[in-house]
Amino acid sequence: MHALQYRLTLPADYDMGIVRDRVARRGHLLDAWPGLGVKAYLVRERRVHGSPVNQYAPFYLWNTVAGMNAFLWGGGFQGIADDFGRPPVRQWTGLAHEEGAAADDPAVVAVLHRRPVPDGVPVGEVAEEAVRECARLAGADGAVLAAAAVDTGRWELVHFSLWRHDAPAADGEVFQVLRLSAPERDLLPRGRRW
């Protein structure tokens, strides 16, 4: 499993209806994308859930590198670059994924928690703790799914979770979920990934 996200921070007075309309018109294009586990079409709106910014920030869980690369280099990502410019794309290697207690419910919000891997602690211990936290999040009331991943270039952990209500049992940045594309969600491997 691989995680990917890009963020488009928009002006404070930007009409977020434009993003909502774009997702409504184009979101279905990834509903059958090979190698894609889940794409969560995420937004943050200024002053909603404590957000200081307007932002479009989709988050992806990929089953295959080939699917991710086909998206980045084979045309899927080009639509973003054409419409908004080319943002930096963050990538993380998957550590764990779990379906949540509310896996069959629609996701309303997503929470993204990023933190550095601390110095002086064996990286294996940090990874095991991330797996346990992923399982804890997935078992919480209202959890749709949870994933943990790491960027070893920055030594940064990320916990990503989807929730069926807007009072998630997770800390981090809260995003509104506009839509999910999940062509291979059932193929995302569960549990620890090593």
Report on this structure.
A hairpin with a 4-residue loop joins strand 8 and strand 9. The chain has a single domain (2-188), classed as 2-Layer Sandwich (Alpha-Beta Plaits). It has an eight-stranded antiparallel β-barrel. It is globular, with a radius of gyration of 16 Å. Helix content is 22%, strand content 37%. It has 194 residues and is an alpha+beta fold. The protein has helices spanning 17-26, 65-73, 78-84, 123-139, and strands spanning 2-6, 8-10, 36-44, 54-56, 59-62, 89-99, 109-116, 143-151, 156-163, 173-181, 191-192. The chain has four helices and eleven strands; from the N terminus they run ββαβββααββαββββ.
Keywords:
single chain, 194 residues, alpha+beta, Alpha-Beta Plaits, eight-stranded antiparallel barrel, 11 strands
Describe what is shown at a glance.
The chain has 194 residues and is of the alpha+beta class.
User: What letter string, H or E per element, gives the SSE order?
Assistant: EEHEEEHHEEHEEEE
Strand content: 35-45%
- Gross morphology: globular
Taking Cα atoms only, what radius of gyration do you get, to the nearest Å?
16 Å
Total helical segments: 4
Which stretches are low in confidence, meaning pLDDT under 50 for 5 or more residues running?
none
Mean pLDDT reading: 96
Q: Which percent range fits the helix content? A: 10-25%
CATH class: Alpha Beta
Total discrete domains: 1
Side-by-side strand order of the widest sheet: 1-5-3-10-7-9-8-6
Second-tier CATH architecture: 2-Layer Sandwich
Distance between the termini: 11 Å
Main beta-sheet annotation: 8 strands, antiparallel, barrel
**Topology, number of strands:** 11
Query: In terms of structural class, how would the helical and strand content be classed?
Result: alpha+beta
User: How is the CATH topology named?
Assistant: Alpha-Beta Plaits
